[in-house]
Amino acid sequence: FREEAFLAETPVLYKPDWDEAKTRLIAWWNRSHVDRATILVRAPRPTTMQPPPPPKDVRQFWLDPDYRIAAAEYQMASTYCGGEAFPWFDTNIGPGSLALFLGSDAILHPTTVWYTPIADKPGDVPPIRLDTSGGWWEKSVSLVREGMIRGEGKFLSSVPDLIENLDIAASLIGGQQLLYALVDDPGGVKRMIREINAAYFECFDLMYEMLDGDRLGCCFSAFQIWGPGKTAKLQCDFSDMISPEMFAEFVLPALTEQTERLDYTIYHLDGPRAIRHLDLLLSIPRLNAIQWTPGDGNPEVGDETWWPMYRKILAAGKGVHLGTAYKDVEPLVKHLGNDGVYVATHAPSVEAADDLLRRAKTW
Known about the structure:
Order of helices and strands: HEHHEEEEHEHHHHEEEHEHEHEHEH
Structural class: alpha/beta
Oligomer: single chain
Number of strands: 13
């Protein structure tokens, strides 16, 4: 593919300067910048649109395309998308929905979704295959397709937050059982990861085609990223509980394969205990960027505590994606520079958002 092909005019009602934003996003993926750092800034704005009635139950909250799209569009209408922020419809049925297409069932909650195990150990897990005949697949596809139909010319629709490797394996057999299996049946775990990866690629490609990715590019729901090709957030939150040696043995090969099969990838590094895997992540040649989440009770993203880590990531040739407080954007960007730096924030007003973007051109 050619990045230039994605710069053709594609009108977006809630983002009149979308084509300008795409130019800066492409520059960020390539570790450069146009006239400032890449900055995603949202702010509240007045709207005459009325919100939809509250959902009658948790199933409607997660599964009803009419409610989901109406709620999302109200949010878009009442939110200013400054800089590289863009309006998007989140097609998720929870984080890690790939498990639903591999045999898990969903336990729906108002704030998240849990997935039921299908076995107690790798040896009891049947061959893992993507099931596109089940009800959960149909429900997910309905959200994707309705988002595309109703969002044409108005907003983007996302690839669901599928998730991969050990995180999905933990959904399929349970987290504690997976910890035991890493020691007792490493071959079985590796078999699961290989099959999860194969199912991931099949699922991603189907979703990408439904979302017309070759024409519109790819919006990935987690961390509001867009790229001119197959674009995804990668992760292994389970790595909080394993050593770098186990990460290298079980996780790194699967992540490396994903970076080689996709066009643009960003890794979600979650919590201080995950930092011990950073050197391995930075060794992946085609991984583009790292997104950092400190976790509850730790210094915020903009705190100077983390600045050496950001410099290390940039020095390794990767970009950084940092969600931080409005007040911390200026010192953070001034310290790190513009190339490869993506900062996401919220401003108190449209005027404050625009002021931040104007000032950023002088840093």
